[in-house]
Amino acid sequence: MNAVINQAGLAFRIMCPQDVEQVMAIEERAYPFPWTSKIFIDCIQAGYHCWVLERNQVMVGYVVFINAVGECHLLNICIDPELQGQGLGRKLLQQVLEAVRMDRVKCVFLEVRPSNTRAVQLYTSEGFNEVGVRQKYYPTKNGREDAIIFAKEV
User: Fold this and answer.
1) Is the pLDDT of residue 93 over 70?
2) Which residues are within 8 A (CB) of 135 and not within 5 positions of it... i.e. 6 or more apart?
3) By C-alpha distance, which of 47, 137, 51, 152 is closest to 107?
4) Which candidate in 111, 126, 130, 145 is catalytic?
5) Could you say which of 63, 78, 81, 152 would form a disulfide bridge with 128 (CB–CB 3.0 to 4.6 Å)?
6) Rounded distance, CA 7 to CA 12, Å?
């Protein structure tokens, strides 16, 4: 995928190893239990779909997902916390959905913390449905939190 640019100055492009330092800066601001830089590098090297979202040539978010056997698993999608609430996450998610449709993916799956109400609202408003729960999936300060499993047919 070459960079895709829209009218709002947004560019979606493939993440490269040189991006991981900036990705990590966003990841660490966004999550109390962030992925490591090694995880992002491993995803890039494994050939997962790893994209960054830039607005006016400044990185504002990223996504990591994998397609296999007609399914997509959205592993990580994040917008810089300072820029959340501006519709950037929705744009990034919609770009992923458009790309997986072109790859003939039939269903997209993801997990989300129930406490991440903004993300839950986003996924629900984009047509995702709750299909299950992963018990004690996410680490928390005082233990573990379940994950809601969402799915959407595309």
Assistant:
1) yes
2) 146
3) 152
4) 111
5) 152
6) 12
Q: For this structure, is 71 an active site residue?
A: no
Q: Which amino acid is at 18?
A: Q
Domain map (residue ranges) of the chain? 4-153
Prediction pTM value = 0.93
DSSP notation for 20-36: HHHHHHHHHHH-SSPPP
Check if 123 is active-site. yes
Q: Which two tokens stand for residue 68?
A: 């296999």
Residue 9: its pLDDT value, please? 84
The SS3 of residue 69 is coil
Average pLDDT over residues 118-135: 97
CB-CB contact of 110 with 97 (8 Å): no
Task: Tell me whether strands 107-112 and 71-79 are parallel, antiparallel or unpaired.
Answer: parallel
The fourth-level CATH superfamily of domain 4-153 is: Gcn5-related N-acetyltransferase (GNAT) (3.40.630.30)
pLDDT tens readout for residues 51-75 = 999 999 999 999 999 999 999 999 9
Residues 46-56 have pLDDT tens digits of: 999 999 999 99
